[in-house]
Amino acid sequence: MRALETERLILRKWKMSDLEDLYEYAKNPNVGPNAGWKPHESKEESKTILDLLINNDDIWAITYKSNHKVIGSISLYNDPKREYKNVKMIGYAISENYWGQGLVPEAVMEVLRYTFEELGLNLISIYHYPFNYRSRRVIEKCGFHYEGIIRMGSHIYNGLIYDDVCYSMTDDEWFRGIRYN
User: Fold this and answer.
1) What predicted TM-score, i.e. pTM, was given to this entire model?
2) Residue 99 contacts by C-beta under 8 Å, 6 or more apart in sequence?
3) What is the CATH number of the domain that holds 9?
4) Which of 16, 26, 77, 135 makes the best surface tag, with the fewest CB within 10 Å?
């Protein structure tokens, strides 16, 4: 994975010095549950997660250029619901302090550009839980095609089972500029 840059963001590999920023946004109960993970209860828990992030080439730290703060994460990994090697899935989380500023769509669009134009992938999928309206809006802004709902598609950290609302974009749609928003 290489670093990516947008007008306001740098998407880069995680570093141990990101611990404070990770804990700051990951402890917020409004952030993690929307993505299916539990809020961090301590810096030690964040450190354990950060160790995993540092050793994972599928997850970028979203860094805000104006203050050099890590404000979230964006990942590109194998979609467990699709068994095809040229398909990846995007996931993201961002600090509540930065919601509503168009930063996640900016990061997602750069990852889409990278995956289609540099990696040559054929399809990118993305999912959200039915209650996560903010994520739905990001997905719509980025032009993904609505596929449907996988009922009882995700079993999350607290034992609950949620439906997955599914979307995708093909390389052909990307290159032809087809957007479904």
Assistant:
1) 0.94
2) 134
3) 3.40.630.30
4) 16
